[in-house]
Predict the structure.
Amino acid sequence: MPSRTQDLAAVLEANSAFYTAFSQRDAAAMAKLWASHLPVVCVHPGWPPLLDRADVIQSWQRIFANPDQPDLRQMKERAFLLGDFALVVCLEVLPNATLVATNTFARESGSWRMVHHQSSPLSMESLEEEEPPAELRN
Amino acid sequence: MPSRTQDLAAVLEANSAFYTAFSQRDAAAMAKLWASHLPVVCVHPGWPPLLDRADVIQSWQRIFANPDQPDLRQMKERAFLLGDFALVVCLEVLPNATLVATNTFARESGSWRMVHHQSSPLSMESLEEEEPPAELRN
């Protein structure tokens, strides 16, 4: 039985693997990250929600095949453990925008697999006017 | 021990209670819906993530106090049960925009309480150009 600290580290590692797959445009690695048996939900910025694993995997293939897809880097990730589930909230910094992402993981066959991703733009106003919450400052 | 069907009904009821609290601008009802002991995460459209229960509750008080806050209605909700955790995805229809929301609930002291909400705009393009996924058609 892994400890809470081990679980949190494993969840943050799964979250990093997600962004590594993204930056390497590695559709096979991305597919492996998503849960195989549990339901999955993916909400790309502006898109209708994808609720079927095949649609989710295909969406990443389409995104990775797009030569205009900008690189992004994740920042300020925070993980919250809720038993066999975990929420990770982080910022996704693109050249011309910053997004807020929630990545949800569940324990499936002993590994932390992604069951949900939603990413949506942070308004420039909130970046300029407000101090980020203390929890998000590095 | 509630059955899967009872759990799904209870989760959808909690999701409806969330939108009832929203439409009635009922900050007390909204506060009761959010988990008390588990960590909570709330991402309003364009806002930085709120990771502290007091900040989440206060954000709803501010939203409800805003006379320009438009009414919304939820549509096409779909719930996914993952043990003691549940994801609900739905559309939030405002007069001039449609948002996609993920509402995440966890069992806390026998009730389904909200632990996460993220709501973000659906692009008009995706509304006009794409068929919604089969699962989201009513």
